[in-house]
Amino acid sequence: MEKRRFHELLEAHLRASGYTNYEFARITGINRVNIQRYLAGTRLPDPQIFEAIRRELRLGVREHRELQEAYYRAMDGDDVYFMRCMIRRMLEEAGNICGMEAGFETTPEPPGQISAPGMRTINGVIAVERYLWSAIWENLSAGRKNAYFYVPAESCILARLLPAFSLDGRSAMGHLNIVQLVRLSKRAEDSAGDYHNLRAVYNLIPTYYQAGAAYETWYYYHDHPSGGRDEAVLYPYYGILDDRVILFSGNMDQAVVAYEPEVTDAYRRSFFKVYKIENEK
Known about the structure:
7-stranded mixed sheet, 281 residues, XRE family transcriptional regulator, single chain, Lambda_DNA-bd_dom_sf, Cro/C1-type_HTH, two-stranded antiparallel ribbon, globular, 434 Repressor (Amino-terminal Domain), 17% strand, Endonuclease, Chain A
């Protein structure tokens, strides 16, 4: 069966998510005329607008990947897109023949990317996601299976950032022990066109489905869903692995990685302070 085109998928997901063109334009800030053009297939959004659209659609992991594939097909054309996929498969096969884990190996830092001894900077949404996959793979390969996250659950689907590759015949998620802190609002408050708490819980479901019993969430409450102290912090979100802490920018498009034990221990103490308080309630 022929795969649906980007504009067809976009319209199907937009309607399934319960949005009208007007409502979706309002919550994303995208011109309504442009949305109509995207749905008609007469115009393609640029990558930044596409990411804004994808963040707001209520999609599972599989639907996100399908929409992204259709977008790249529309942007590059079928021939170029499938040629790139074929080249990627060839490189992965070559990596396997050479005994490498293609796609997850660490690569030397480009000039100017190392900010200080024991630290590393990552720029770009895709680069941040790829680095997180690589870091988790390294930890799993070394027998380190714990991961702790404080990421914006109302706008970020954690399962999309975690690896789906196989390890010893099981998915990587099946090997991980994950604890996530989730900030909720004490009152029902509309945020970006949806109730903050409902949006946060909705985005947790794919991770529950993918990780199962190895995934824990602990909730704590603020008076408001946003606008707290986190808004003033350059890197308000973070993930803690056994050997490093990864600090994420507010829109998850930049990261700073710290390996120093003093830094990782400080973040681990802060994380478990909240975890302990909520666990004892």
